[in-house]
Amino acid sequence: MHLTALLLSRLQFAFTISFHIIFPSFTIGLAAWLTILEILHQTTGRPVYRSLFEFWLKIFAVAFGLGVVTGIVMAFQFGTNWSVLSRMSGPVQGPLISYETTTAFFLEASFFGILLFGRSRVRPWFYVLSTAMVALGTTLSAYWIMVNNSWMQVPTGYVIENGTLIPTEWSSILFNSVVWVRFPHMLLASYLAGTFCVAATGAWYVLRREFNSEARVMLHMGLYFAAALLPIQLFIGHLVGDYVHHFQPVKFAAIEGRWHDEQPASEVLVALPNPDSESNRYEIKIPILGSLIGSLSFHSKEVGLTDFPRADRPPMIVPFFAFRIMVACGCAMLMIAWVGTYLSRKRRLERHRALMWLIFLSFPLPFIAILTGWFTAEVGRQPWTIYGILRTADAVTPFLTTSSALISLLIYCAVYAVIGTFGLLFIYRLLRAGPGGTPTPAYVPALPSQPTSLFGGMASNK
Questions:
Q1: Closest listed residue to residue 63, CA positions, set 190, 187, 185, 149
Q2: Considering only CA atoms, which of 241, 247, 273 is closest in space to residue 260?
Q3: Terminal CA-to-CA distance of the chain, rounded, Å?
Q4: pTM of the predicted model as reported, rounded to 2 decimal places
Q5: Phi and psi of 280, rounded to 5°?
C-alpha cells in the first residue's frame, strides 16, 4: 500500500474519532444512570443509591475528562488536514460545532462542578436538577454531532455559491428526518454502553463476593434497563437502514453484499466478498428476505453494486463485515439481557456463575457495536466526504505533505496511547476499590443570623 497524505489523513481521523467516541458514549449513558440514582436516593432515602452515585460519579469524572481531551483535536484536524472541506462547508459546520460548545459543553461544565463540589452547598432538589442538566448536556452534545454528521450523509437546506455551501434553511438541517433516526440510534447505543458497564461491574463484584448490596443493584438494574432498551434499539436500527436504502443505495448494496440486481432479493447472512470478481465466496443467504428487509415487499427489485461506477462504490469489505459484527453484538446483548432479566425475576440469577461471567465479559459489546456502526456509516459513505457533493480525495488540504501527515499521525497515536493507558488504569483502580469511603456531607442550610452554622452542620454530618 502506497502511503499518501490523503490515506494518512484518513487513518488519523479514523483513529482519533474511534478512540474519542468511546468516552462520550460511555459518559452519555453514565450521566443518565447518575440521574436515576440520585432521584432514587432522594425519593427512597436508601443509602445504597447514594453510595453508588458517588462511586460512579468518580468514574464519570475521569471518563468525561478523557472525552474532552481526546475530542479537542477533532476541530483542529478540519483545518490542518481537511482545509478544502472546512472552506466549502464552514458556513454550515462551523455554527453546528459552535452550538455544541455553547449549549452542551457549557451546560455540562457548569453543572458538573455542582455534582463534584456542591452537594453540601445546594438544596437536594437543585442537586437532582444539576445531575439532570449534566445528562441533558451530554444528550445535546450527541444531538449536535449527529446533526453535523447526518448533514454530511444527506446534505439538505443549502445552496452552492462560489464553491461554498451556504445554509438557506436551518430547519431543514436541524430537523432533517435522517437526524431523527440516527440521533436516537446513537443515544440508545450510549445508554446501552452505560447499562452493560454497570451490569458487568455488578457481576464482577458478585463473583468476587464484594459490596453485596451495591452489586445486586447494579447487576439487576443494568440488566432490566438493557432488556427494555434493546428491542427499541433494534427497531430504530431498522429505520436507520431504511434511510440508507432510500438515500444511499450504493452503501446499502455494499452492506447487503449484493453485487447484482435481484428480484426478489436474497439476504446474504455470511460470505467472503471478492471485489475483483464482483462476487461472493462461501455465501449463505436466505431467499426473498433481502426484499422484505429493504422494501417490506416479497417481490421488490433491489439494486446491486454493479449498477454504480467503480469510482462511486465504497470499499465493500469494511461495511459488509462491520455491519454484521454490529448486529451480532446487538443479538448477543439481547440474549444476555433477556436471560439475565428472566433469571433475576425468578431470583436465580446469582446462582448461575457461567452467566455471571458472561455478563461480566459482555461490557465491550456495546462499544464494539458503536465502533462497527460508525465504520459502516463512514466507510460506506466513501468516496464522499459530503455525500454527492465533495469527494474525500478532493477534501484534503492540497499542500499537506506525506511526511507531515505521518508525523502528526504518529504523535496522535503516542499521545492518545499515554492518555488512554493512564485514564483506563485509573478507572480500573476505582473499580477495584469499589463503592465506599466517606460520603459527601449533605446540604445543611445556614441560619440567617448565624451564617457560620453551615460549617457546624457540615461537621456534624461527618
A1: 190
A2: 273
A3: 64
A4: 0.91
A5: -110, 140
Three-state secondary structure along the chain? CCCCHHHHHHHHHHHHHHHHHHHHHHHHHHHHHHHHHHHHHHHHCCHHHHHHHHHHHHHHHHHHHHHHHHHHHHHHHHHHCCHHHHHHHHHHHHHHHHHHHHHHHHHHHHHHHHHHHCCCCCCHHHHHHHHHHHHHHHHHHHHHHHHHHHHHHCCCCEEEECCEEEECCHHHHHCCCCHHHHHHHHHHHHHHHHHHHHHHHHHHHHHHCCCHHHHHHHHHHHHHHHHHHHHHHHHHHHHHHHHHHHHCHHHHHHHHCCCCCECCCCEEEEEEEECCCCEEEEEEEECCHHHHHHHCCCCCCECCHHHCCHHHCCCCHHHHHHHHHHHHHHHHHHHHHHHHHHHHHCCCHHHCHHHHHHHHHCCCHHHHHHHHHHHHHHHHHCCEEECCCEEHHHHCCCCCCHHHHHHHHHHHHHHHHHHHHHHHHHHHHHHHHCCCCCCCCCCCCCECCECCHHHHHHHHCC
- The answer to whether 262 touches 305, Cβ cutoff 8 Å, is no
Paired with 166 in beta bridges are 159
Distance (Å, whole) CA 15 – CA 106: 27
Q: Is 434 left (phi over 0), alpha (psi -120 to 50) or beta?
A: left
Q: Would you state the cell numbers that stand for residue 400, as one nine-digit string?
A: 499537506
Distance of CA 367 to the CA centre of its chain: 8
Among residues 389, 421, 400, 461, the alpha carbon closest in space to that of 159 is found at: 389
Q: Digits of tens for pLDDT over the chain (462 positions)?
A: 678 999 999 999 999 999 999 999 999 999 999 999 999 999 998 999 999 999 999 999 999 989 888 888 877 888 888 999 999 998 999 899 888 888 888 888 889 888 888 888 888 899 999 999 999 999 999 999 999 999 999 999 999 998 899 999 999 999 888 999 999 999 999 999 999 999 999 999 999 998 889 999 999 999 999 999 999 999 999 999 999 999 999 999 999 999 999 888 898 899 999 888 888 899 899 998 988 888 888 888 999 999 999 999 999 999 999 999 999 999 999 999 999 999 999 888 888 899 999 999 999 999 999 999 999 999 999 999 999 999 999 999 999 899 999 999 999 999 999 998 999 999 999 999 888 755 566 555 644 455 444 433 433 343
- Tell me the three cell numbers of residue 333: 446483548
